[in-house]
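User: quick one, sequence for these tokens?
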């Protein structure tokens, strides 16, 4: 395990050649970490793959071999030091050669590489990394099933929000390290909190290279730099210490994500410090427990399995998990930087989210992602790289899966942000065909139990009781308001409402003559506006739905405005309704937070690279710990119709509070607000919602296609909520139920 040692960066170049040829005809500059395809594209003057349909220019690179090379002289070293070649990630099947000697063959992008170079060194040295062509289980169909026998993210093979572009190459930190002959290979800190969480029993396990006569010292420092615990012991033995009254790590919305600094030192015979590694520790207890009422289901005979536990208990407190699904923020993950992660994760916190589900179709993120989630107080639901495929029981695949998992689990297990291990995405569905008897999932369960038993494990998402979907504002004639109000689930782990990207994104990716109106067969389709999901020609643009509620847009600005409104109100409705269903429901995670390249239309709330949509702000409002809320039965209303909404006070805070006076108004545009109802709430109790009265009014006959509902809390504007709903004049709309009108087909 590579920890806290400087990596000496090298100057790399890369070439390509067809399998069977001796080597490349030429080399070009390579960015490491990065992606071989992108290096070749830049050198050859390819247009930006993010624009129009340019990503298709990369197709041929799936079937060539890439060869990286770098030359270096031996750096200055002391007599007790040696030189190592290290890499945190090379994608996917590769071989490494040092001065022409083949020293390693490997499959898997998440296992680190550590090669002691001393036996191979010369005055001038050459390292070569041969990366084989993209693995494919079969030639056709060219889709995610080609990745169903490898531990490589399936998303690059094509998804409804990700183009077919499969990365290859050196994708994580790679270079030289100078190490002493005796060094700390790994240090694992285990702890257990007592039932009152007032005592932490700590056990330190170290793995040391060539350390005869040495001892291990371990010290713990609080956030102010004060040493609060220390212990030492002989190499090869666990050492233990107790920490009274540890400060606990919390998600940012429930407390302070408190972190201690740990220092592990290898001390020589003469008391000299031979090696030191540092890490951060957050003391917390995380559990996944049964939701309130879940044991009572199913209610009827024959009795069967109850809903799976989906309630997160953090430090003894049952919290409502509000968050999103995280996808890799770049097509080429090698180009991800700590700064990129930081920008996005600060948006997560600002959206009042406390959890991210790292979806199994993508990468296991770089170290910086988890360190930032630690410090920002964001829980991480981490899936292994299995998604929407039937992964095999054969021994070769299982061997690679075990190798990769045994690298992933120790790397992540000490991060306090890690909240859930999950086998992968949608594996218990008919398109995957796996069960809890499938050997890959049994293997992952056993490895997580052996290496990280303190973190909950689930086989896949969703499990019984949980929900994935829906992903459209209106489906089979039913709006999000209707299906969500009627639903009964313990957790909503995926749900989506599509929205068009901001104009500044569209103008960069779509040629000017194709910008408006959107048309199939143009860059709109390349960027997921048409035929992206489930064979539906209307996804993700949803033009038919927009035209059902609003007049046909006459400009691009009008189209974006209508789409943004619908996405924001749809997401707000789902998040708030999920919270109303507490305590049986305990989780709401939309699909998705970010995107890896600029989409024309998508379910994301943040457009590439870092542009919040209107829906982002609506979700942030819906996830406030304490807010007034209105529950609607539908989106579109008519003049002279009796409008109604149910009032709620949503509360995920564990602080006691007082009583509130809440008022409801309706208005059209900038017109006068019409008062509908005022409500004096009872005393607010910790973590308890309050259901209020129903507000009713006969709507005026406005000349508009939308109106606002304002829920105002006297003296607390930070708790106010505003909703925008669709409207039609009384003489232009039938007041008969519209169910059965399927505008998505």
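Assistant:
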């Amino acid at each position: 395990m590579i920890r806290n040692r400087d990596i000496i960066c090298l100057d790399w170049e890369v070439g390509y050649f067809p399998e069977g040829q001796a080597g490349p005809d030429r080399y070009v500059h390579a960015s490491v970490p990065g992606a071989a395809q992108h290096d070749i594209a830049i050198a050859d003057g390819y247009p930006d793959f993010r624009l129009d349909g340019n990503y298709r220019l990369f197709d041929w690179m799936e079937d060539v071999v890439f060869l990286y090379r770098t030359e270096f002289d031996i750096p200055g070293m002391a007599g007790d030091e040696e030189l190592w070649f290290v890499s945190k990630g090379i994608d996917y099947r590769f071989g490494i050669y040092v001065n022409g000697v083949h020293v390693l063959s490997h499959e898997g992008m998440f296992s680190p590489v550590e090669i002691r170079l001393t036996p191979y060194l010369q005055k001038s040295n050459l390292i070569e990394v041969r990366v084989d062509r993209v693995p494919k289980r079969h030639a056709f169909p060219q889709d995610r099933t080609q990745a169903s026998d490898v531990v490589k993210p399936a998303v690059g093979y094509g998804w409804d929000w990700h183009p077919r572009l499969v990365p290859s190459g050196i994708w994580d930190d790679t270079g030289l390290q100078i190490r002493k002959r005796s060094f700390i290979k790994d240090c694992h800190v285990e702890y257990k909190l007592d039932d009152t969480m007032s005592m932490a029993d700590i056990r330190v396990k170290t793995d040391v290279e060539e350390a005869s006569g040495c001892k291990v010292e371990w010290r713990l420092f609080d956030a102010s730099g004060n040493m609060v615990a220390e212990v030492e012991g002989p190499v090869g033995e666990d050492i233990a210490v107790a920490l009274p009254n540890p400060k606990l790590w919390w998600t940012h919305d429930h407390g302070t994500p408190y972190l201690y600094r740990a220092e592990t030192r290898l001390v020589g015979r003469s008391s000299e410090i031979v090696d030191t590694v540092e890490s951060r520790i957050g003391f917390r207890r995380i559990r996944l427990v049964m939701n309130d009422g879940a044991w009572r289901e199913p209610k009827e005979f024959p009795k069967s399995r109850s809903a799976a536990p989906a309630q997160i208990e953090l430090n003894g407190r049952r919290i409502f998990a509000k968050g999103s699904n995280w996808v890799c923020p770049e097509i080429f993950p090698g180009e991800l930087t700590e700064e990129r992660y930081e920008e996005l994760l600060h948006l997560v916190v600002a959206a009042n989210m406390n959890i991210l589900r790292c979806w199994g179709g993508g990468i296991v993120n770089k170290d910086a992602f988890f360190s930032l989630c630690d410090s920002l107080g964001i829980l991480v639901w981490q899936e292994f790289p299995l998604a929407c495929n039937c992964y095999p029981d054969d021994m070769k695949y299982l061997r690679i899966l075990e190798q990769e998992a045994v690298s992933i689990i120790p790397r992540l297990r000490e991060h306090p942000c890690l909240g859930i291990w999950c086998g992968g995405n949608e594996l218990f569905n008919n398109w995957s065909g796996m069960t809890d008897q499938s050997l890959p999932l049994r293997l992952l369960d056993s490895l997580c139990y052996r290496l990280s038993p303190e973190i909950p494990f689930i086989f896949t998402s969703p499990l019984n009781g949980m929900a994935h979907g829906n992903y459209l504002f209106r489906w089979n004639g039913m709006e999000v308001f209707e299906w969500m109000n009627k639903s009964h689930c313990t957790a909503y782990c995926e749900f989506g409402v599509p929205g068009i990207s901001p104009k500044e994104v569209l103008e960069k990716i779509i040629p000017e003559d194709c910008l408006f109106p959107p048309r199939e067969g143009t860059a709109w389709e390349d960027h997921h506006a048409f035929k992206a999901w489930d064979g539906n020609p209307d996804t993700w643009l949803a033009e038919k739905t927009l035209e059902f509620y609003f007049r046909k847009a006459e400009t691009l600005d009008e189209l974006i405005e209508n789409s943004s409104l619908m996405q924001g109100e749809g997401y707000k409705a789902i998040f708030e309704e999920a919270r109303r269903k507490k305590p049986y429901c305990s989780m709401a995670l939309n699909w998705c937070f970010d995107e890896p390249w600029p989409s024309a239309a998508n379910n994301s709330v943040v457009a590439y690279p870092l542009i919040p949509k209107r829906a982002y702000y609506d979700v942030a409002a819906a996830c406030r710990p304490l807010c007034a809320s209105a529950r609607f039965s539908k989106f579109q209303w008519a003049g002279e119709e009796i409008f109604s909404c149910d009032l709620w006070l949503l509360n995920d805070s564990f602080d006691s509070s007082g009583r509130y006076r809440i008022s409801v108004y309706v208005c059209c545009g900038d017109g006068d607000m019409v008062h509908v109802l005022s409500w004096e709430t009872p005393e607010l109790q910790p973590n308890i919602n309050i259901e209020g009265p129903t507000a009713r009014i006969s709507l005026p006959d406005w000349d508009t296609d939308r109106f606002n509902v304002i829920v105002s809390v006297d003296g607390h504007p930070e708790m106010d909520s505003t909703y925008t709903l669709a409207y039609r004049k009384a003489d232009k709309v039938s007041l008969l139920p519209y169910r059965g009108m399927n505008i998505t087909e």
